Amino acid sequence: MKDIVQEMMAFEGIDQTSIKCMGMGIPGLLNPDEGISIFSPNFPDWENIHVVDQMKRYFDFPVFIDNDVRVNMYGEWLFGAGTGYKNLVLITLGTGLGSGIINDGKVLYGTTASAGEIGHMNMYREGRPCRCGSSGCLGRYVSAIGMVRTLTDKLEDGRSSILMQWAGNDRTAITAKMISEAYDQGDSLAIEVMNETGELLGFGLTNVINLLNPELIIVGGGMSAAGDRLLHSVRDTVQNHALKLSSRACKIEQAKLGGKAGMIGAAAHADSKIRPTL
Predict the structure, then answer these.
(1) What average pLDDT does range 98-110 have in this prediction?
(2) Which fold would CATH assign to domain 2-70+260-277?
(3) At 46, is the pLDDT very low, low, confident or very high (cuts 50, 70, 90)?
(4) Which runs of E-coded beta strand occur in the chain?
(5) Whole-number percent of the chain with pLDDT over 70
(6) Whole-angstrom Cα distance, residue 161 to residue 166?
(7) What's the rounded Cα separation, in Å, for the pair 124 and 128?
(8) Is the pTM of this model over 0.85?
(9) d(CA 202, CA 177)
(10) Is the pLDDT of residue 23 over 80?
(11) Residues 84-255, CATH architecture
């Protein structure tokens, strides 16, 4: 990360003295006040890494960290799909499932800055193992990796799909994007898996709506590109199972900023941290 920042500065001809601050989005559990990344389930052997101290060795400007999904939420809240809303939840669907929460116009952090770990909501008492130490976590099923796993499990059970032809009979080559493309081609297994994934995510978001009563849920991350292929079954499930008063007041929308949301949000969050000292 340090090398990339230095390369960007050199490419743009930017001197350190012209930079006010830097924001970083770090996946997993962290202590944003201390600048420490405590645990990241997708980074093996990454524990108690003092990210801010590491950056201070090379940069003179202030550095701030926050959860990667939370900085995505800052971006969408301030500049994207969430502009003007006071009660919203942003979820990102990628290698995992994370979320950020705005409640009455304030970002919800919780006691240990780990509020919003919706991806670790238990959906099955004994399900797929998760690196968090539990099993059956929602993120193990509705993330891009989880959806691919659902499809490949069905292939192992003898089901057929055009995806095997596309992947050269190598199940490990199948991606979430390929499942979306097979869905568009009318592949029955791809449609089944997409609907199952959306339904399970809908049950997870039903719990979120009943608990937090948001006016908007934003779906972001790489897998959000599936759009209504995924979201139609999410919305149907929420409509059928969430509390009627709460579900009618809550929209479920696709994120607007795409891959830029985290960068924009991290920069805006860092800027807000230094403004009181200006």
Answers:
(1) 94
(2) Nucleotidyltransferase; domain 5 (3.30.420)
(3) confident
(4) 22-26, 29-31, 36-39, 47-50, 63-67, 88-93, 97-103, 106-107, 216-220, 251-254
(5) 99
(6) 9
(7) 8
(8) yes
(9) 20
(10) yes
(11) 2-Layer Sandwich (3.30)
Q: Which two tokens stand for residue 34?
A: 């201390």
Q: Are 102 and 85 in contact (CB under 8 A)?
A: yes
Cβ within 8 Å of residue 101, ≥6 positions away: 73, 88, 89, 107, 108, 115, 116, 212, 214
Domain boundaries, the chain: 2-70+260-277, 84-255
What contacts 209, CB < 8 A, 6 or more positions away? 217, 238, 242, 243, 246, 247, 250
pLDDT at 74: 96
Average pLDDT over residues 256-262: 93
Same fold for the pair 2-70+260-277 and 84-255: yes
Give the whole-angstrom CA distance, residue 52 versus residue 84.
32
Q: Any idea which residue has 């809908």 for tokens?
A: 202
Which residues have a Cβ under 8 Å from the Cβ of 81 and sit 6 or more positions away? 216, 218, 253, 254, 255, 256, 257
pLDDT at 278 over 50: no
Average pLDDT, the chain: 94
Contact 270, 70 (CB under 8 A): no
pLDDT of residue 276: 60
